Structures are given as C-alpha cells and as structure tokens.
Amino acid sequence: MPRTKTRHVTSFTRPSSVTYSLGGPQATITLPPHSSWTSGLHYHATHTEYLSVLQGVASITLSGRSQDYTPGDGIIVVPRYARHEWHRASHTGEDLIVREWTDPEDGLKESFFRNLNSVINEPNPPLPCYSMFRGWWIEWQILVICNSMDNYPVFLDLAWLGFLGRMIEDLIARVVLWALVLAGGVFGLKGAYEEYAPVSMSVVKGRRKNA
C-alpha cells in the first residue's frame, strides 16, 4: 500500500495527547490538560538539544535530576548523551507548550517528528493483517526511526552505576536498535520515508556516510 504523503503538513495532533507544530529548525509541542504524553527517557549522541517552556509547567528530568520548569526559567540545555525526559508537571491547569531545537540545526529533529507522527497516523495499512498487530508494529517502526534520527531510548536505567551504567545503557540501546533495524529490513521498515519528510532521506544518508 502506498504511504500517505504528509510532507506539506505543518501540524500533527493526537487528540487529548499532543500537538506538534513543525516547519523549521524549531518544533513546538503542546500538551493539553490531562495529557499523559511523555518524551520517554532517551538521549542524543550527535546533537545538543534545547528546551524552552513557553506556557505552563513542565517536569523535566535531566541527568537523573527532576525539576519543574516555567517560562521564567529560560532555556534548558541538554548535552549530548545526557539522559532526559519531560512531560506535564500536573494533569490540570493550562496547556503546556514547549519549544525544542538542536545544535546542529540539520533538519533531523523535524524529520524525526514528521516520520514519527506520520507512522502513528498512517491510514494506509502496510500489511494485509495490520489491524491485528498495529500496536507492536508501530512501536517497532518507531524504534527503527529512532536509530536513524539520533534518538536512543533508555531500555534499562542504570544511572546508579554512574559512567559505567551509561556505557552499558548505550551498548544495550545500540544492540537492540540494530537488531530491530536488521529484522525490520526484511519487512520493508525504513528509518525515514520521503513521503513523510522532504529532508528525511538526504539527512539520514548524510548521517550514515559520516558515521
């Protein structure tokens, strides 16, 4: 089945959960009241990330330390390899609006969010029996995308082991992701789709060439 072209879409919404506003090096993420959305604990190997709370209160965990942030707290810097996660500090109150961007500003963040949301919202089933396996299929596809887009999930939190723990976390993440990538290739899963993001393939190919 052909994938739905979403390269022209500038906003992706999952009702009662999250809205991504894209269209440039910065991404604006809005979480409505009662949203249980979370970024999940993860890290980036080749990008420094920046977060700025524009409205509401965000609970941000950075390198094992959790803190609530408001617009008055300025820009939060997330160094490379720093484990981090963020979500609403409270289920009630106003919308939480957070802006994200990276250094370098190479388009990878926008490409990641476009591929991520397009996969989740894809109306054209990639397999005849897709409805039976939708949940794990989407999770599998997302992890393949993560591997190509410098997003490494923390599968086993070993922060209590310090530097050694971080090394083990990184090894686990890379082994798991590469196994999923290799297996996913058999079923046609890719780390990026040209139907979803105009910069997807050029950015990903550049990352592989420079790796």
TrEMBL record:
Record-annotated membrane-spanning stretches: 171-193
Gene3D superfamilies: Jelly Rolls
Pfam families: Cupin_2
Database matches in InterPro entries: Cupin_2, RmlC-like_jellyroll, RmlC_Cupin_sf
Keywords: Membrane, Transmembrane, Transmembrane helix
Domain Cupin type-2: 29-94
Protein name: Cupin type-2 domain-containing protein
Organism: Amylocarpus encephaloides
